[in-house]
Automatic annotation (TrEMBL):
This protein's encoding gene: Btg1_0
The protein's name: BTG1 protein
Alphabetized PANTHER family for the sequence: ANTI-PROLIFERATIVE PROTEIN DOMAIN-CONTAINING PROTEIN (PTHR22978:SF40), B-CELL TRANSLOCATION GENE (PTHR22978)
Listed GO biological process terms: negative regulation of cell population proliferation
GO cellular component terms given for this protein: cytoplasm; nucleus
Domain Anti-proliferative protein: 96-115
InterPro entries documented for this protein: Anti_prolifrtn, BTG, BTG-like_sf
Species in which this protein is naturally found: Leptocoma aspasia
Pfam families xrefs: BTG
Family, per entry: Belongs to the BTG family.
Domain of life the protein comes from: Eukaryota
Amino acid sequence: AASGAGADMRTEISTAAAFVTRLLRAAGGVGEEQLRCFRECLQEAMREHYKHHWFPLVPSKGSGYRCIRINHKMDPLIGKAAGMIGLSHERLFQLLPSELTLWVDPFEVSYRIGEDGSICVLYESPQPGGKAAKQLESRTSCKEEWRIGRSSPSKTYNMMTVSS
């Protein structure tokens, strides 16, 4: 990348690729070596795809183009990376959520599972130029929830004490 754009999007791309790889690992049945290869192939495919569609000064520009989407159709970038490790689209549909949207934008990577799911932020960094980072508290909770697994009760659960 002559403009140096490649280096700028490394964190965003590796965050997004790691997330899809984690989903595959969680589904089971895919070996670690395959997962590593899948992740590298996906990062490479994304880098190539986003090369001329990355605008740190206007982060939302080209967002639709960079959006990774599974919605009864397999996202071509995921499909391509999976093909490199011998996973068919049919197999991918069994392993990954049937509806997944992943937005990979400068300074922010977020995802939504299901059409009405809440949007969770995977990565966010303040934009250069001093625009204050968007209020995060309410949105990180859902990230944590994903990490912990939905079965555990929320932390505020046992905080209620009865004062005499």
